[in-house]
Design goal:
Layout: E1 2-5, E2 13-18, E3 24-30, E4 35-40, H1 41-52, H2 70-79, H3 100-108, E5 135-136, E6 143-144, H4 167-174, H5 179-188, E7 208-211, E8 227-231, H6 233-241, H7 246-258
Antiparallel strand pairs: 1-2, 2-3, 3-4, 5-6, 7-8
């Protein structure tokens, strides 16, 4: 028997000795004979061969299978699996064309689409859509058409490319109020423009948030305290062109009255 000292085996020793049939067997004795494990020579040859090869992805780690290391092999295997069959879910399917999340929901007999649990205003893609194809806003939590969300400037692979907050919440943020405050103000006005009393302007656009321009300059975010009311686009534009000057508006009224046709 040939004995080779190996300091890397916790004080044990590595011995190679012949066995019946002529095939050599390696016995690794660890901890002064406390444990013994036998490995066939063919296995040792394969392990030695793979340990010399490096991962084809260039990470420098030894090969496990298919020319890849353990980490790269598992990542490649996961990427080759199809996506979950639930619309909007970007998780990989594990069984029955469903990801782990939706497999658990199916097993529990609950709906595949549940109201999102907002944690840090981040909603998983699998919970952003319901069965009607509507998308949830991460701020007001309303289910809206995807057209109610602007696209993000920076696209993320596997994402739908839309902002997490709806267009209305983005506008409310610019004026320093929440959607709840916007809804309460509009309800106090009877659901219509504070000037012309129309709920939707002629162009079909939604109502606008009006604020005092002398308090917060145009172009930046408003403080929220100077919001005066909700107006339609024409009425909001009228105040803007008049520069919020009541005298100009009075002259406009006098002008219209003086040119009223005689009946």
């Amino acid at each position: 028997m040939t004995t080779v000292n190996d300091e890397n085996v916790h004080g044990g020793f590595l011995s190679v000795e012949p066995v019946s049939g002529g095939a050599p067997e390696m016995a690794l004795q660890v901890g002064r004979g406390l444990a013994t494990r036998s490995v066939h020579s063919s296995t040792i040859t394969d392990v030695t061969k793979n340990s010399k090869q490096k991962c084809s992805n260039g990470c420098g780690r030894p090969v496990k299978a298919r020319g890849l290391c353990s980490g790269c092999y598992e990542k490649d295997r996961a990427e080759r699996m199809p996506l979950c069959a639930i619309k909007g879910c970007t998780n990989r399917a594990r069984a029955k064309n469903l990801c782990n999340l939706h497999l658990q929901r199916k097993a529990k007999g609950v709906s595949m689409f549940t109201p999102p649990q907002v944690k840090g205003r981040i909603i998983p893609m699998s919970e952003r859509y319901n069965e009607r194809g509507e998308r949830v806003c991460s701020k007001c939590l309303r289910w809206l058409r995807p057209t109610e969300f602007h696209k993000r400037a920076k696209q993320t692979p596997g994402d739908d490319g839309l902002r997490s907050t709806c267009n209305r919440c983005v506008i409310c943020w610019r004026y320093g109020i929440t959607y709840q405050q916007f809804a309460e103000l509009l309800e106090a006005q009877g659901g219509a423009c504070a000037i012309c009393r129309k709920d939707i302007c002629a162009s079909g656009r939604e109502l606008s948030i009006d604020h005092d321009h002398s308090c917060c300059p145009q172009g930046g975010r408003s403080c929220g305290k100077c919001v005066r009311g909700i107006l339609c686009q024409p009425c909001n534009g009228m105040l803007g062109y008049a520069q919020d000057d009541p005298e100009i508006l009075k002259e406009g009224i006098n002008y219209l009255l003086s040119h009223r046709p005689q009946r």
